[in-house]
């Protein structure tokens, strides 16, 4: 069992919270792009409200603990570890509720090299509690616009966590998948479920476009987000994302293991 105090210390030591690797410059750039509704940072969300750059700074100060001063324009960004812990508590509550109902759940990540293990252990715990962990549309093509043009990827699953891979990489055990912000993979997965006539997810768990794309379509969605991913926090503020946990989403994969144990314990699941 990981105590709240021990996890708080770990968050700071691993730079999951406190001063993080994401710079203030990166975050402010994302806020400017979001205010301009640039699809690269919208992650599939279509906000109902108007969000200017100052609105986003105020929101992120409230949700993450970053500086609320628009004049603060450089240096490392900061996440309040207490906000991370509160987010993890709410995240665990949602998982525990899904387990209690034995509800179908879908996991997906745009950060497979960092967060795959975190989600996979939660998927194992929910499966052991009787939740169907969905893996629809495996192998389907997903055409994603990148800075190099439209590229075709394949939807795949590793330990029941959805991700996208380069064509031909499915047979490479060391190739965990590619980093993506796109909401298209969750749309392909949900289309596959609808075509198959199977159960739709009662909960979508993940990050980036997996969460915002699902929330935009009306699905209960929870996830993790860094200070330069305002879309999830806007989605939460507007009621389309149920829980967003503020943390650095790109540290070493083993640094997330104490978070997994904490969440599983809080959700009263077996590891």
Automatic annotation (TrEMBL):
Native species: Streptomyces formicae
A Pfam family per the record: Phosphatase
Protein name: Phosphatase
Top-rank taxon: Bacteria
Lineage: Bacteria, Bacillati, Actinomycetota, Actinomycetes, Kitasatosporales
């Amino acid at each position: 069992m990981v105590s709240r105090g021990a996890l708080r210390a770990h968050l700071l030591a691993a730079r999951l919270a406190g001063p993080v690797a994401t710079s203030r410059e990166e975050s402010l750039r994302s806020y400017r792009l979001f205010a301009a509704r640039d699809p690269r940072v919208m992650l599939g969300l279509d906000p109902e409200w108007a969000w200017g750059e100052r609105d986003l700074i105020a929101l992120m100060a409230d949700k993450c603990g970053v500086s609320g001063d628009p004049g603060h324009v450089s240096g490392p960004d900061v996440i309040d570890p207490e906000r991370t812990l509160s987010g993890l508590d709410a995240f665990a509550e949602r998982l525990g509720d899904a387990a209690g109902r034995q509800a179908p759940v879908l996991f997906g990540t745009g950060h497979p090299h960092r967060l795959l293990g975190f989600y996979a252990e939660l998927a194992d715990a929910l499966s052991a509690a009787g939740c169907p962990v969905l893996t629809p549309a495996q192998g389907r093509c997903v055409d994603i616009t990148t800075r190099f043009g439209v590229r075709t990827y394949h939807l795949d699953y590793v330990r029941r966590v959805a991700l996208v891979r380069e064509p031909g990489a499915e047979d490479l055990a060391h190739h965990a998948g590619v980093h993506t912000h796109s909401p298209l993979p969750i749309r392909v997965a949900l289309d596959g479920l609808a075509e198959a006539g199977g159960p739709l997810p009662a909960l979508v768990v993940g990050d980036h476009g997996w969460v915002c794309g699902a929330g935009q379509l009306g699905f209960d969605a929870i996830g993790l987000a860094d200070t330069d991913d305002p879309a999830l926090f806007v989605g939460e503020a507007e009621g389309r994302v149920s829980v967003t946990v503020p943390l650095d989403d790109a540290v070493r994969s083993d640094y997330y293991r104490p978070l997994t144990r904490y969440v599983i314990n809080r959700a009263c699941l077996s590891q």
